[in-house]
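From: lab user (bench 3)
To: helpdesk
Subject: output format question, protein + S-adenosyl-L-homocysteine

Hello, I'm new to running complex predictions and I'm not sure whether the block I got back is the full result or only part of it. Here's what I submitted:
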Amino acid sequence: MKTFPMFLQMQGRRVIIAGGGEQAAQKCRLILKTEAAITVLAPVLDPELADLIAEGRIDWHTGPIRPCDFEGAALVFVATGCRATDSCLHMLAKSAGAIVNVVDQPDLCDALTPSIVDRSPVVVAIGTEGTAPVLARQIKTRLEEILEPRLGDLAALVGRLREHANTRLAPRARRDLWRWVFAGPARDVHRQGGERAAAKMIKHAIDTATFGTEDNGSVALVGAGPGAKDLITMRGVQQLQEADVIFYDRLVDPEILDLARRDAERIYVGKAPGCHHWPQDKISGVLVAAARQGKRVVRLKCGDPGVFARGAEEADALSAAGIPYEIVPGVTAASAASAALGGFLTERGTCDTLVLATGQSQTAGKSLGWMKTLQPGTRVAVYMGVGSAGKIAHEISVAGLQDVIDIDIVSRAQQIDQAIARCRASSLVRTVKESAISNPAILFLTWPQSTAQDVQSEKVAQLR
Ligand code: SAH
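Helpdesk reply: Thanks, we reran it on our side. This is the complete output you should expect:
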């Protein structure tokens, strides 16, 4: 190790930042996370720094810079944006005995700033001694996924309860207690926002000395997103990494399963359209059975578990069996497809209403109930609509809207073989047949507000 990691005490200490531009602002943002008193030395300031001074969060010194300006500082950052000025300021700061970091000049640095994962008071610093900053960022991303955002609050809570545990429990029992806290149900409850409930659980565990390893199984209904590995949420990844068993769907990309623990059991419960290999009640049944064995279960569904995913049926079965469950949202196909088109699901003034609909109706031959929601300023995102393209085109024509409705189709949105097409109702069936469009795909039917106004003003003009 050429460098040695240490956590510096920053409370009430001075940090000097020489420079008033973007680089200085960047260091300032970093140090503002601490409780240090920051002084910026610069003749002029970038707007972000100026705002911080106006808010009284940092001090500003404009005059000539002398060695005494650096005296007693815990750290000095030199970031003027001019290498020659930086070198001079480095010499001044060194002559005052300061620990100095000069931005982008590792040879002039006594201390290097690491990549930081901040779950304060839990802080992880990653350094590569300047050899591989990209690797440091990759490691940081992995850790950001693993460490839930509220972990710092849990650590702080444990810190507050430590004294209480010390007075009640022997050292060995205390170790078991804290292991139980960080690996068991209290952490889950806390992660889901139940700080008070978690505190109560931990206090109860301390008072009664009960923190066995018995764990009563639970289920997380997790949205995997549209298929791209990096479009699952961090909470989803966390659940995957903690799962003993994962029940997954046909549309879940195998790469997403790689995010799970290597020894987690993976069970495919997919349903192909029209071929119900795994009936819904059987899926609900296996979820309940696995949880009853005390397992941590993940039910991984494509997109969002709350959108055309039969999540409600599974949740009902779990509730009826008294099994706790959590819903982890995901990026639904409509969001993924809209982004793939370079557009937005709603657009102020043009499309203010968004309808999520399915192309599969429960009763064959029956008309698509959502057709009546097509109004000016509305966009309908049709899931599972490829097979009903003929029916959709027909109903649009019957409503006399064939020249009004814009149709965009995105198949396998955000996946490597994503395909996009745009057409009118008259050519919808041909477009689906002849282009690279196939399942899974989203059909957007949009009746733009402006068209409605145009049609209406045309009609008004004709009446006149
Ligand atoms: N829960 C899912 C929807 C499941 S229904 C979600 O929130 O996205 C299955 C339908 O979702 C498919 O028939 C298709 O219409 C749509 N779908 C899922 N993934 C998709 C993708 N990557 N691109 C386009 N459509 C997708």
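A quick orientation on your result: The first strand starts at residue 14 and ends at 18. Let us know if anything else is unclear.
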